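Hi R.,

As promised on Friday, here is the backbone we talked about, encoded as structure tokens. Could you run it through your design pipeline when you get a chance and send me back a sequence?
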């Protein structure tokens, strides 16, 4: 059996306050009418969530393996959503290529992410998807 290959791309990204007027101040600080949405202004004014982990994992399964992959991945999604440190976890299938999938994951911090990676349901996913992809999983960490 071939192991799932993992390529890890790491980038430290934080929300940067946006300046939307000529004052050079952050949204909501200039006192002028802001062109940004209220939500954007609120996010820009908040302290960045430096501990939060966001993961985007992409996998292309071998043709004909889509249903089997969804069956295994659905169990992972359901169990992961129950993890204490999981903020968001979902699986997307490309509407253009049924063999392409993306997991979008958010964890409250690095410890929650590590707990997920050490979980029995993640191990079951890795075992259950062996041989379903010749390309492995591409993981982006933000």
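Update: got your reply. Pasting your designed sequence below so it's all in one thread:
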């Amino acid at each position: 059996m071939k192991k799932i290959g993992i390529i890890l791309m790491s980038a430290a990204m934080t929300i940067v306050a946006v300046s939307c007027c000529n004052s050079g101040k952050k949204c909501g600080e200039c006192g002028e009418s802001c062109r940004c949405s209220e939500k954007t202004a609120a996010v820009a004014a908040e302290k960045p969530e430096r501990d939060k982990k966001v993961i985007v994992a992409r996998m292309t399964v071998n043709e004909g393996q889509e249903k089997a992959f969804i069956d295994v991945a659905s169990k992972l999604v359901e169990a992961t959503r129950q993890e204490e440190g999981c903020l968001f976890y979902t699986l997307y299938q490309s509407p253009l290529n049924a063999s392409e999938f993306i997991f979008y994951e958010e964890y409250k911090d690095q410890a929650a992410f590590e707990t997920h990676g050490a979980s029995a349901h993640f191990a079951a996913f890795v075992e259950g998807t062996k041989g379903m992809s010749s390309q492995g999983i591409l993981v982006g960490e933000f």
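One thing I noticed while checking it: The chain is about 30% helix and 25% strand.

Thanks again,
M.
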